[in-house]
Design brief:
Blueprint: H1 3-25, H2 42-78, H3 93-98, H4 106-109
Bound molecules: zinc ion.
Length: 110
């Protein structure tokens, strides 16, 4: 990977981190606990609890991705980014551009 490509990946990762942080920072009223005395029949209370579960699951996935991206950023800074964690060969740039937090090359990921 050449320095320009590395810089490109760096900005993709930072952009994605900003997106996720903005997503996690938004105060979504749907993610608030559902009060038991909410005067909206049983069915809609169930709906709103399910919606809440979905948002919580999504937030969990985003936090995981955020951790992976932050560790990718650390590897870029340390100069160890872009090598497969398993076979140690360089990961194809196209793969890293699509999945910047990839730690395995395409053959090892299969
Ligand atoms: Zn590999």
């Amino acid at each position: 990977m050449n320095p320009a490509q590395l810089a490109k990946i760096h900005s993709i990762v930072e952009e994605r981190i900003n997106e996720i942080e903005a997503f996690l920072a938004q105060d979504d009223p749907e993610s608030k606990p559902v009060a038991p005395d909410v005067a909206i029949g049983r069915l809609s209370r169930l709906d709103s609890m399910q919606a809440q579960q979905m948002i919580l699951a999504q937030q969990r996935r985003q936090r995981e991705e955020l951790e992976h991206l932050q560790s990718a950023l650390e590897r870029i800074d340390k100069g160890t980014y872009g090598n497969c964690a398993y076979c140690l060969s360089p990961i194809a740039y196209e793969r890293l551009e699509a999945i910047p937090d990839a730690v395995l090359c395409i053959s090892c990921a299969r």
